[in-house]
Design brief:
Blueprint lengths: L1 H26 L13 E6 L4 H6 L7 H10 L1 E6 L6 H11 L5 E2 L2
Parallel strand pairs: 1-2, 1-3
């Protein structure tokens, strides 16, 4: 019971601290998640896309969440989508070439 109260108190304090930054960030014209100096930066994200997802979108860049996140942070995420059939081959080629992506999701 005591640990639950401590966790809730810690979360509440963290939320209050984060909310206190919102007015300062709003004055700068950016969202509360804006990363200073990140505008124009690009991260690469390697993530296979299965057939079901491919029916609805060509790339995760089309998803509204990632578009919103780019607006909020200023960081562009470029998705690399090998098909499920080519996933192992593409992963092995990446590892052997020492040309790694910023984020890997397998």
């Amino acid at each position: 019971m005591k640990q639950t109260r401590k966790r809730l108190a810690t979360i509440a304090v963290a939320l209050v601290m984060m909310l206190s930054l919102v007015p300062v960030l709003a004055e700068s014209g950016h969202g509360p998640l804006w990363i200073e100096g990140a505008e124009g930066k690009t991260l690469t994200w390697w993530v296979p896309i299965d057939g079901t997802s491919a029916q609805y979108m060509e790339t995760w860049e089309d998803h509204p969440f990632f578009q919103w996140m780019e607006e909020q942070t200023g960081v562009h995420v470029e998705f690399i989508h090998p098909s499920i059939e080519q996933m192992e081959q593409q992963f092995n080629l990446m590892m052997n070439s020492n040309n790694y992506y910023d984020i890997l999701f397998r």
